[in-house]
Hints:
- The protein is α+β, with helices and mostly antiparallel strands.
- It has five helices and six strands; from the N terminus they run βαββααβαββα.
- The protein has a six-stranded antiparallel beta sheet.
- The model has no long low-confidence stretch (mean pLDDT about 90).
Amino acid sequence: MLISGVAADKDVSRISLVGVKDKPGIAFEVFSLMAREKISVDIILQSIGRDDTKDISFTVSKSDLEQTLKVLKENQQRLTAQKIMHDDKIAKLSVVGAGMATNPGVASLFFEALYDADVNISMISTSEIKISVLIDESEVDVAMNSVHDKFKTATASMRKH
């Protein structure tokens, strides 16, 4: 399966800028503010525009949450955000491994394991070596165990064939 590990990170906060104008430069404005404040951003998700607006969500460490919110609220009008929301009761769960992009069953197994554990996903991020999801922090242990068991079973089954 080319999965080398399952990792959980509870030091995560999600920020959502809701209803920003759907125009060039908004993402630049948001993330240049974060860079100026030396705030590291991890997962970034931008929604498809609707009614000339879109939502931009991203994660920061819990220690950066207060400063991030302060800077965004000070610039809310310039960023055209109708609302700024946050959630610090989340965790990031990831499966990591080289070559995952060329292995078609990885995402399916990951999401099946979360479904089996009745864990809801609030955001998804993928790369060639990692799939990460944001979930409720209270569910991270059960989710991690379910994902670990699912990949262990799948790997054992593949070895038999």
